[in-house]
Amino acid sequence: MDHGSIITSWDLECMLCAEKAEPKALPLSLLEEITDGFSDEQRIGSGGFAVVYKGKLENRTVAVKRMSNTYMYEKEFHREVECLMMVKHKNVVRFLGYCADIQGSMERYGGKFVMADVQQRLLCFEYLPKGSLHAHITDASRGLRWRDRYEIVTGICRGLHYLHQKNIVHLDLKPANILLDDNLVPKITDFGISRCFDEMQSQVMTKISGTPGYLAPESYNYTEVTYRKSYRLDIYSLGVVIIEILTGKKGYHDVDDVVDSWTDMLEEPQKEVQLEQVRVCAEIGIDCTNVDPAKRPDTQYIISRLNETVCMDGYIENSVITSLQIDPDMLIGTTHALCLSYQQLNPDIRRCIEYCSIFPRGSKLRMVHLVRLWIAQGFVHASSATTDMEDVAQCYIQELVSCSFLQPIESTSDTDCFTILYELYDLLGKVTRNDYCLIENKGCDRGEGWEGAIPRYVQHLFIEKYDAKLINDKTLGLKSLRTLIIYFVEEDTPIEEKVLEGIFEELPELRVVAFAWSQEHAAIMLENKFSIPESICRLKHLRWH
To answer: Domain holding 393: CATH number?
Structure first.
């Protein structure tokens, strides 16, 4: 991109897609254009001295933060830009650019028209569709499942550790300043009162701002805090946030009580390990909120403790697997080699092959369907806006073929088809845990229902044979469901519209809905089977049906 040229919405979209792109100065005209003139319809939030708008690009969305009372909050604007220009981390909101514009405005003053300077101060970020963590805070009995909460806690701690390594103290860490992306990855945001203290380590802070309830006790008693020790203010706020994620409430909670509140909410086979994760997180939260700043742990210690909960009792950790149980008898021969190959895959490719675990063993999978399913679920990431995601997904397939996870099979058509390595299913069953579920009910006699259990937090569900009762009784309560594939529909079995209505009304997170009846996984034929009700429009995340 030429620095002398005017940046367009297409340039901004290219920046958003290229992870290594540096933030840039953005023209006010561009930010006005993508927010429809900062219209109320595009407004998505507001804070003490700013309003946030949704900015619509051709294929993507960004968030535009417009400062109000710019003369009063000029320092906050400069601090935020200074901090954001220094950071790039998956748990810190992605900063795309800024606008510092001054326009002349003719105003009537003392009976005369005079030219007044009007300052415009704006920031542009990636758009996070799940909103702030604050909207997802509940007790253990509802809301986010434990696995999601644990990964949110871990992500926040890693993001804060990164900031502290950069000598940045946030000073206003709270759920409202932690945004969640489409996969519930947490990202720290709002650096308006943050400090970068690499050159001010001998100075002190005598006036500490922040949000009551998350401020450390020393913030209220006019204690002078050196910049070198100011990270302890963030640690206190982190402790409050962790306890709130675990319990739904701020303040002290007994560790045993917190663990007890989760006991009936967790499912086998990971229950024992997950309860230990609850205990460790509760202990960390309490340690972080110690009234004595010197006794609060640093982020490196916190991350080390979190890592212990995924490395104990035969559990291993990497960037994606957080509770993969390894049976000692498993680590031999072919399975051992598969496990090592699996862990060396790119994280996005791992997610793609994990997704394939919902298909029955021996299934013939067409390349075109795998590519569309992976893209619909957001597993495929292009390096730039000019890169075709289908090309990237096909490269994923080539990688999986090269390590024998996907095996090409002969087909009577020209379409590339694959099957999953048979031995891989056992490993995938351990990795995917309760996210993926396969119901093999095709062999049931007519009238005989399927009586198995479906994990309550399952995200991807494959049902081998259409069964209206099964769908109504077992699936409509699965609020986290993102994939629903019905593989086989008998020739004389119509799909009732009320079944579809139930799916569209009760499963708002669905991205893939597929009713197929070809054993070759062919394209869906709608004739004489069903009509799609208008309520499908309620599925805001739907990408393939």
So the answer is: 1.10.10.10
Among candidate residues 131, 144, 40, 39, the one with its CA nearest the CA of residue 93: 131
pLDDT in tens, 470-497: 898 889 988 889 999 988 877 777 788 8
Q: Are 488 and 465 in contact (CB under 8 A)?
A: yes
Residue 303's φ and ψ, nearest 5 degrees, are -65, -35
**Catalytic entry in 2, 101, 139, 172:** 172
Rounded Cα gap, residues 500 and 503, in angstroms: 5
H helices then E strands: how many in the chain?
15, 21
Number of other CB atoms surrounding residue 538 within 10 Å:
15
What are the residue ranges of helices labelled H in 96-218?
146-165
Question: What are the backbone dihedrals phi and psi of residue 315, each rounded to the nearest 5 degrees, phi first?
Answer: -95, 140
Instruction: Please check whether residues 403 and 508 belong to one and the same domain.
Output: yes
Q: Is 182 a catalytic residue?
A: no
Count CB atoms within 10 A of the CB of residue 304.
Answer: 11
Q: Can you list the positions of beta strands (E) in 73-184?
A: 95-109, 112-126, 168-169, 178-180
- The answer on 418 and 285 residing in a single domain is no
Q: Write the CATH number for 43.
A: 3.30.200.20
Q: What is the mean pLDDT of residues 84-113?
A: 79
Contact between residue 136 and residue 144 where contact means Cβ atoms under 8 Å apart: yes
**Same-domain check for residues 73 and 151:** no
* Token pair for 61: 């969305």
Among residues 178, 293, 322, which one has the least CA distance to residue 245? 178
Domain that holds residue 104: 9-126
Q: Is residue 75 part of a domain?
A: yes
Which residues in 18-94 belong to E strands, given as ranges? 24-25, 43-46, 50-56, 61-67
CATH code (residue 267): 1.10.510.10
* DSSP 8-state symbol, 58: S
Question: Which amino acid type is present at position 215?
Answer: L
Any idea which residue has 């399927």 for tokens?
450
Between the CA of residue 383 and those of 157, 372, 388, what are the distances in Å?
A: 27, 18, 9
Q: 545 lies in a domain? A: no
The residue assigned the tokens 């805001």 is 540
Cα separation of 303 and 294, whole Å? 18
187 shares a domain with 47: no
**DSSP string for residues in 222-243:** T--EEGGGTHHHHHHHHHHHHH
* Tokens found for residue 122: 């704006």
Query: Per the domain annotation, does 158 fall within a domain?
Result: yes
Out of 73, 95, 126, a domain closes at 126
- Measured distance CA(15)–CA(46) in Å, rounded: 25
Kindly state whether residue 2 falls inside one of the protein's structural domains.
Answer: no
Q: How many domains does the chain have?
A: 3
- For 346-394, write each residue's pLDDT tens digit: 888 888 999 998 998 888 888 988 999 999 988 887 765 566 888 889 9
Instruction: Please list, residue by residue across 307-319, b when 16 or more beta carbons sit within 10 angstroms of its beta carbon and e when fewer do.
Output: eebbeeeebebee
Judge if 526 and 406 occupy the same domain: yes
Question: Which pLDDT tens digit goes with each residue over 104-144?
Answer: 556 666 667 666 556 788 999 999 989 999 999 999 999 99
